[in-house]
Specification:
Layout: E1 8-12, H1 14-23, H2 30-40, E2 44-48, H3 58-67, E3 72-76, H4 80-89, E4 93-96, H5 116-128, E5 132-137, H6 141-149, E6 154-158, H7 160-167, H8 171-190, E7 194-198, H9 206-210, E8 215-220, H10 222-231, H11 233-246
Helix pairs in contact: 2-3, 2-11, 7-8, 10-11
The protein binds 1-deoxy-D-xylulose-5-phosphate and ligand LD2JLWAY.
EC number: 2.6.99.2
Subcellular location: Cytoplasm
Keywords: Cytoplasm, Pyridoxine biosynthesis, Transferase
């Protein structure tokens, strides 16, 4: 199968806010990073307003909505508070993610199959407001099928475990995990769902994921913000764009 189209890059600027908040200063500014990302070739900006506001804060979402001209993918938990914020701002997309207060980062995907009725009710007003709703899930077929049943137009498959296995040098297990991601992408696409992927991706782990033909968008943050310490944010993003394009043959441009 040929790739379905040009792969979009969503740049997640959460960890600019992590650095800012570590010192309680007003800098570095996530909006400034987003504007730079836009010029460097990002197709969208992703920001995760965690319930504990450990990085992105409400004022950052206000500033991003007012300041950027590429789509904002607003990541949040499926709570009443976050739904109200999303409905007030009406970003291009909302990506619903699981959250546990004590986790270091997003562990696992949203349990759509186990919370189907509530999530269907949660998603409906967002969709009615014209927001593209995405569910951040594991590649589990049960979860993908549940997303189809509740009418989610997009899933973002969690690549964190695949990336961890790569970093730990457990290559056979990594390749098995990659195969599950491939199968998940094919299943979601066959059910009419647009497929995104993200979490923990790096220059090394992106190529096989970018080569999955059904994948339309990657959301990448932590690695790019880290890499920007060494080569600057613009160059870090431009290099990611090159890596993605090189792994996506068969397109005219
Ligand atoms: C859902 C997800 O993967 C992102 O929100 C991203 O990883 C943000 O970083 P933290 O998980 O550190 O909040
Ligand atoms: N949804 C995943 C995301 O936005 C980026 O995750 P990471 O690259 O910061 O781990």
């Amino acid at each position: 199968m040929k790739p379905l189209g040009r792969l979009r890059l969503g740049v997640n600027i959460d960890h600019v806010a992590t650095v800012r908040n570590a010192r309680g200063t007003g800098y570095p500014d996530p909006l400034r990073a987003a504007l730079l990302a836009e010029v460097a070739g990002a197709d969208g900006i992703t920001a995760h307003l965690r319930e504990d506001r450990r990085h992105i804060r409400d004022a950052d979402i206000d500033a991003l909505m007012a300041g950027i001209s590429i789509p904002l993918n607003f990541e949040c938990a499926a709570t009443t508070e976050m739904q109200a914020i999303a409905l007030r701002h009406r970003p291009h997309a909302v990506c619903l993610v699981p959250e546990r207060r004590e986790e270091r980062t997003t562990e696992g995907g949203l349990d759509v199959a186990g919370d189907e009725a509530r999530l269907a009710d949660h998603v409906a007003p967002l969709r009615e407001a014209g927001i593209r709703v995405s569910m951040f899930i594991a590649h589990d077929p049960r979860q993908i099928e549940a997303c189809a049943r509740i009418g989610a137009p997009v899933v973002e498959l969690h690549t964190g475990h695949y990336c961890d296995l790569h970093e730990e040098g457990r290559f056979e297990e990594r390749d098995a995990e990659l195969e599950k991601l491939r199968e998940g992408a094919a299943l979601a696409h066959s059910l009419g769902i647009e497929v995104h992927m993200g979490h923990g991706l790096t220059y090394e782990t992106v190529p096989p994921v970018a080569a999955i033909p059904q994948v339309m968008e990657l959301n990448i943050g932590h690695f790019l913000i880290g890499e920007s310490i060494f080569r600057g944010l613009s160059e870090a993003i431009e290099e990611m764009r090159r890596v993605m394009d090189a792994a996506r043959p068969g397109l005219d441009g």
